[in-house]
Write a structure and sequence with these properties.
The chain has about 170 residues and is mostly beta strands. It is built from 1 helix and 13 strands, in the order αβββββββββββββ.
Length: about 170
């Protein structure tokens, strides 16, 4: 789905419900001070105004307020969606959309370009995930992981051919 969202609390309930008790060897992301050029506004043009996505960085809360179709993106409880980090992961779309639902098959194993927005800055780099059992990692050109701020991270998976539809501004 194009709108999957969860929380640590929901994931914990799923773990308990399914009786999973094994430990994980998946390491967390690298946290630190954001790097890159200033990026206060981020837009993704999906080709339809109903799906236009925008983020504006709010320094007071240290997060990116999300807009959908020109209006604040609100959750079912009325609160505004505002992740601490926004990652644009450019990935290859395989084949045509499914005829009934319009869903796409997207290759999320392998590697590709990425943009990491954190702390009002953007770092350009690469994403990499070689097996289903590992987490997706985001790297600078130097090979070091791109640091994120602790908090909610929203990953927008964007077709690789849409790179020119993602833009940001320093304002």
């Amino acid at each position: 789905p194009h709108s999957t969202y969860t929380s640590a609390e929901r994931l914990q309930k799923l773990i308990e419900r399914r009786g999973w008790n094994g430990s994980s060897t998946i390491a967390g992301w690298h946290f630190g001070e954001p790097e890159g050029e200033r990026a206060k506004l981020l837009t993704i043009d999906w080709g339809n105004p109903l799906f236009a996505v925008g983020y504006s960085y709010d320094e007071d809360i240290g997060a990116y307020a999300r807009e959908l179709a020109g209006a604040p993106h609100r959750l079912t409880d009325g609160s505004e969606l505002a992740p601490t980090n926004v990652i644009i992961m450019f990935a290859q779309v395989l084949g045509a959309p499914e005829p009934v639902t319009g869903t796409l098959t997207i290759r999320t194993l392998g590697e590709g370009d990425a943009l990491v927005f954190s702390g009002g800055k953007v770092a350009e780099g690469k994403w990499k995930k070689l097996t289903p059992g590992e987490r997706t990692q985001f790297y600078k050109e130097s090979g070091e992981e791109i640091p994120l701020r602790p908090g909610q991270t929203w990953i927008e998976v964007v077709p690789a051919g849409f790179r020119d539809r993602v833009s940001w501004d320093q304002k």
